[in-house]
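Can anyone check this?
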Amino acid sequence: MGKSWIDIPRNTCQYMGGLNTFLNFAFSNSGVRGKIICPCHKCNFKKWQCRKVVYKLLIVKLFSEEYTVWLLHGERRVNDEICVMAEEDGGRVLITNNMCEMVNDVFVHHCS
């Protein structure tokens, strides 16, 4: 998934399109009860927010600069390549790493 839209001014159609693509991806791959961990600079991955709030925050606040691989939103690295976890079983993303599965079980299906 391209991420060049993050550096485009937030009042452009390209930014809005990229933001909607990110939100679609994040909510389908890591959403829990209609919320995701918000990646805006203000929330700093500490608050779970609904789509409407995340959308508004990522327009008003900056997207966290260091967050280049969306580990908390469905991407993962394999041999320095970004891979999207696509297998789902009832909404839960399946991961082969046993430690990640254990962390997911304890912390509501999130692994980083």
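Reply from J.R.: I decoded it. The chain has three helices and six strands.
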